[in-house]
Amino acid sequence: MGSKYAVYVLILSLGTFISCGTTTEFPSKYRGEQLHFGQGGGFSGLVNYYVLLDDGRLYQKALYDSTFNYTDKWNKTFVRQMFSNYQMLDIENVDYFEPGDLYYFLQHKEGNQPLHSITWGRPGVKPQENIVTFYNLLYKSTKTTL
After folding, report:
1. CA nearest 142: which of 35, 63, 27?
2. pTM for the full predicted model
């Protein structure tokens, strides 16, 4: 009886260890499409940083280090629509870097391609309204997971 219990505990512990290990750094190794988005700055300088993978997994970057924590699994239809909208809005061809004290960012990565990034926040200056709307939809969708 004792050895069966020990094997059960070992298997359970190993499963927990493996599941924790695969979710902390996974976005950095993912080869599919990724949307990185968030906001930061201000008095505290804190950054809310999210990564949405094309398979629907959402990660949040830890505040004080570079690890990613699994947050949620989003609806596949919504995720496909967001990645499709990114392409249809031609955001990958927008060059925009106008950060302010408070700033917002939207980034896209696919496979080994370089990260494409746009940043805004300087008072009185912002990108096209459809980009801001796209960002707001992404960012506000994270609020249901907090």
Report:
1. 35
2. 0.78
Looking at 1-146, list the stretches that DSSP marks H as alpha helix, in order from N- to C-terminal side.
2-24, 26-29, 76-88, 129-141
With contact defined as beta carbons under 8 Å apart, do 145 and 73 qualify? no
Cβ neighbours of residue 135 closer than 8 Å, sequence gap 6 or more: 37, 104, 106
d(CA 108, CA 91): 9
Q: How many independent structural domains does the chain possess?
A: 1
Q: Say if residues 55 and 68 touch (Cβ distance below 8 Å).
A: no
What residues make up the domain containing 63?
A: 2-145
Candidates 134, 142, 135, 143; CA nearest to 59 is 142
At which residue do the structure tokens 């955001």 appear? 91
**Residues contacting 120, CB < 8 A, separation 6+:** 96, 98, 99, 100, 103, 104, 105, 126, 127, 132
CATH number at residue 75: 3.30.1560
pLDDT in tens, 6-52: 545 445 544 444 444 444 447 878 889 999 999 999 888 899 999 99
Is the separation of the CB atoms in 39 and 119 below 8 Å?
no
Tell me how far apart the terminal alpha carbons of the chain are, to the nearest angstrom. 42
